[in-house]
Amino acid sequence: MTEQSPIATVLGTGIIGAPVARNLRTAFTVRAWNRTPAAAEPLAAEGIEVARTAAEAVAGAHVVVTVLTDAAAVREVMESAAPAPGTVWIQLSTVGDADTAELAGFAAERGLVFYDAPVQGTKQPAELGRLVVLAAGPERERQTATAVFDAIGSRTLWVAAEPGAATRLKLALNSLVFALTHGIAESLSLAEALGVDPNLVVEAVTGGPLDSGFFQAKARAALTGELAVAFSIDNAVKDSRLITAAAERAGITVDVTAAGLGRFQRAARAGHGAADMAASYLAR
Length: 284
What we know:
Elements: E1 7-11, H1 17-23, E2 29-33, H2 37-40, E3 49-50, H3 54-58, E4 63-66, H4 71-81, E5 88-91, H5 97-110, E6 113-116, E7 119-120, H6 123-127, E8 131-136, H7 142-152, E9 153-160, H8 165-193, H9 199-205, H10 213-224, H11 233-250, H12 255-272
Parallel strand pairs: 1-2, 1-4, 2-3, 4-5, 5-6, 8-9
Antiparallel strand pairs: 7-8
């Protein structure tokens, strides 16, 4: 991008944030900041300005993208960054429905144009610019928001004009992701416990109606022990708690997610919190 291109700032350069910053270069001049500076430093060699502070990172930016761990981190960083009124704020982090309402209120107080935009996809889709963006927010800056979404994703699903709806959809989708993950893990571990080679589970499923790219990836990770993080156990614990809390407020019971939370917690206690959520297989 040229010097005249609008500036997009990415706050948080972890597994999703770093590739988001790289892919935004197709439409913006990009700045980045991370609470652990070493995580952002490799981006400097790729033409991305790495700022020393969040406030420095957002100065003069037209759009700010937050890709942080949780709502508390998002709020803390945005308070210290203090973007100028009128700045477009695109919130990609997965936070709770109540948290999103609080962040939207914070944005309104500061005069920021807020988009609730969690994504479907993990490390590889992020690197390839193939995330699916779930978006909710006002019409007036959608052109800017769409430029961001087109740079980082393969598809954008506009859910509503009011922030919060996209996050609620993300929680519902994550409940499905976690159920599939645990289903794969339990099937493999049950086979093994019953004296059956768990690789035969994969062989039986392959090519049939239960087969999918997700099944193959998580089964392979579990059985090979190659648990490089696409989505960690620790993050799965956090998001499972968000789902159960949202369900409780809505007056329904999510038995599978609640039980799955316990399984993720067992895997974390066994020392696998930083591993991919396929380590549900190791929650014995």
